[in-house]
Structures are given as C-alpha cells and as structure tokens.
Design a protein that fits this description.
This protein is mainly β and 82 residues long. 9% of the residues lie in helices and 46% in strands. The chain has one helix and seven strands; from the N terminus they run E-E-E-E-E-E-E-H. Strands 6-5-4-1-2-3-7 form a seven-stranded antiparallel beta sheet, with no helix packed on it.
C-alpha cells in the first residue's frame, strides 16, 4: 500500500512520521520511525503489509520501523501524548 508523509514530530531525539494511505483501505494511517529524513507532503512510500518491507515509490528499500497503524487520529491528542 502506498502512503504519503503528512506529519512529523520528535520524540527523544528521534523523528517519527505520520503517513496516510493513498487508497481507501484500512489502516488509513501509520506512524513510522526512520533514520532517513522524509519530506512532509512530498514523499510517498510503499509498505508491504505482510512483510513490513518499505520502499520509496521508485522501488529502493527504506530502513524504517512501523510503530502503529490506525484508521483515524486527532492531531491535538498526538501533540500532547508524546
């Protein structure tokens, strides 16, 4: 499934990214952690839901970890809970 990076926040010196699925499937959002810098509203990633392998839209693998998957989120909640 393809996801677009829509938000970023920092937790303990590590950047975490929120990505939204580009297709109307569940889960609609994921939170990921990556040592690579991702661009807000520009980068599109492919996530294989069975293997959790992630690649750029061009096919190159990305080192990242999916922390959470969910169908909706409240940005206000995220800013206070982390």
């Amino acid at each position: 499934m393809r996801y677009k990076i829509i938000d970023v926040y920092q937790k303990e010196n590590i950047k975490r990214y929120i990505a939204k699925c580009l297709k109307p499937r569940s889960p609609q959002f994921i939170i990921i952690e990556s040592p690579q810098t991702l661009c807000l509203n520009l980068d599109i990633i492919d996530v294989n839901p069975k293997t959790s392998v992630t690649t750029w839209a061009t096919g190159e693998e990305i080192a990242m970890k999916i922390l959470q998957q969910f169908d909706s989120f409240d940005k206000t909640y995220l800013s206070y809970s982390h």
